[in-house]
Amino acid sequence: MSSAENLIVRYIRQAVPGPLAAETFALERKPLPSLSEGEILIRNIYLSIDAGSRAQFDDRADYVIKAMLGKVPGSSGAVGEVVESRHRDWQPGDLLVTPHARWQLYQVAVPTAEPLLQRIDPAMGPLAMHLGAMGMVGFTAYVGIFHVGRPQPGETLLVSAAAGATGALAGQFGRIAGARVVGIAGGADKCAFVREQLGFDDCIDYKAGNLDEAIRMACPKGVDVYYENVGGAIQHAAFTAMNDFGRIALCGQVGQYSGAGAQAGPNLMVAVLKRLHIQGFLAMDHLDQYPAFIERAAGWYREGRLQHHATLTQGLENIHEAINSVMSGGNIGKQLCQVSAEPDRRDGEPRSVFQ
Fold first, then answer.
1. DSSP-assigned beta bridge partners for residue 223
2. How does pLDDT run across 196-241, given as a tens digit for each residue?
3. For the chain, which has fewer Cβ within 10 Å, the N-terminal or C-terminal residue?
4. Residue 82 contacts residue 90 (beta carbons within 8 Å)
């Protein structure tokens, strides 16, 4: 490993509202760090990209993480390969997923200090799935559906950003729970994907206009549970369509993450009159349920009841474009930045799509 170099992305210029520019960041080459006892060196393969990846650069967004000028930004997770180890339980070649990642090619981890750093069995499915359907984004959808929204068989679940990472999984979990699931997505192609590939009962194209009427048509019995990802006009229309005593799982507000500041909030008098239960949630508050989630999600994937879809942007130098893809709705399923190649299969069949 002595001849290898680390690639690091540093945040050097205050981000302005709108798409992230390449000039906001600098790509640096550094020597590989040396390891202390109990540490491992990871070569990152996939970095997780989500709406929060943009929000960390917006000083007006009320997000849990803020990027600091001059520092290396963080990612909500990475899939990687151990390339060097000074930990007795980890060997070079081991594959893993960690929720603690930075925008760099190689990173050091201390397994004993990271309880959610887990070894990956490549036989379980695509490596990227461990940042999607069986990763923290999947766990977020799982918590929002099974612990917050709690759709029952025969109820109607409405999911915004239904073709995105969390929405696509929330809707699939709703179907597993027995609900009738209706998505909201942008464009005919995305709506077709949500219906035909993900198995939602219906999907509404919010770009087609007259959203209130479209929701009434798709949800003739009203909405019992709403999984909220976006805010803005979609949130207004969804609140209006709720049935009395409906439940709303507030996962995120993508409309507030681009640097443009907060949008107008919902008409909360609707929540009063309809006696709605509205709950924001963070998956990190439910980590005791993570092992059960992994076991159940793996079973559903094997049974064909849970799908994984991802959109890849290749190259650490293009990570800002991966974020722009999420913010513009350019992704189908989980957005990832692939920063290095997957290891070859032992049978010689290459796994890498990285050029």
1. 242
2. 999 999 999 999 989 999 999 999 999 999 999 888 889 999 999 9
3. C
4. yes
Phi, psi of 151 (to 5 degrees): -65, 140
Q: State the pairing for strand pair 223-228/156-159.
A: parallel
pTM reported for the whole predicted model: 0.86
Q: For residue range 267-315, what is the model confidence (pLDDT) as tens digits? A: 788 889 999 999 999 998 999 999 999 999 999 999 999 999 999 999 9
CA dihedral 140, 145, 146, 151 (to 10 degrees): 180
d(CA 276, CA 96): 41
Structure tokens at 129: 């799935």
Q: Which long-range contacts (CB under 8 A, 24 or more apart) does 112-121 make?
A: 112/38, 112/87, 116/287, 116/290, 119/94, 119/95, 120/79, 120/95, 120/96
Distance CA 164, CA 168 (A): 6
224 contacts 247 by C-beta, under 8 angstroms? yes
Neighbours of 257 (CB within 10 A): 25
Q: What is the DSSP letter of 258?
A: S
